[in-house]
Amino acid sequence: MEIKDRVYGVQKIEENVILDLINSNSLKRLKDISQLGMPDTYLSFPGFSRYEHSLGTMILLKKLGATLEEQVAGLLHDISHTPFSHVIDWVVGDPTKEDYQDKIFQEFLEKSDAFDILNQHGLNPYFISDLNNFKLLERDAPKLCVDRLDYSLRQLRIEKGKELTDKILNDLCVYDNQIMFKNFKPAKLFGDSYMGLQKSSWAGDEMRSRYHILSETLKEALNKNLIDFSFFNGTEKPILEILNNSNNEFILLNLSMLKNGFSVIEDNEGIELKKKFRYVDPEIKVNGGFVCLSEICKDYKKTVEYEKERNKEVKKVKIIPV
2-205+276-312 in CATH: which number? Predict the structure, then answer.
């Protein structure tokens, strides 16, 4: 099987367990789960699916020499994501943590066809589901890990182009079972680019306003029994169909704002836009050891400290249809 990936190019997949998982219902479901929480119809720039990110995570793990078990874990690490991804944290979770899918991951895997596929291939599903076993795949922020690298490289590839992502990708290495950079400049480039995505996209006023609008829309649909929570085990299209075909004025106005645009105005009497603070502090291989970017770049350390404090500020806004 060949996969044409927007970041890594054409990749040949031969491992039977990987092929079976790619063809499973668990993975196919992710084709209709938006990575950024918004279908392209409701975004002002192109997005991508959790399916694309999951395959990309597996590919990058393989490129970095990960075991088959870790590649499998990478492929499956997002299967518990609900429709609209982290928007669910604005409905029933905590927008400052965005961890709803992590809490239900093992239970979701146990009920999925992926669980049976793992057993059929002699892999322990419970070992695979404990992502603490895989230090290339997942590490606590602000450390580098493949999950964090892939979703950001994927968005940077769309927004900034191949030249930038190749500079980052081609300088990565693994040392002491940790992902790091070989040189300062690519590490700084990635740190700055990741912070740029945090400010302009993930935690920007527009994106957080979109999350607020869509989450309030979903709450209304739940309260009016247009959908029930079982819909969040499925995909986005059935939910969007029900929302768009409803006669609910509140829902239709919100969908119109998401599609046609809105203005965000600071207002102390408005709604509070919560956000999760994301940043990276890449490690750089130096003289048989490694150092963090912030340890050798004062400007980067200052930027992180400033943005971290700015993130704590409570911001209230009014969202107005255009």
Answer: 1.10.3210.10
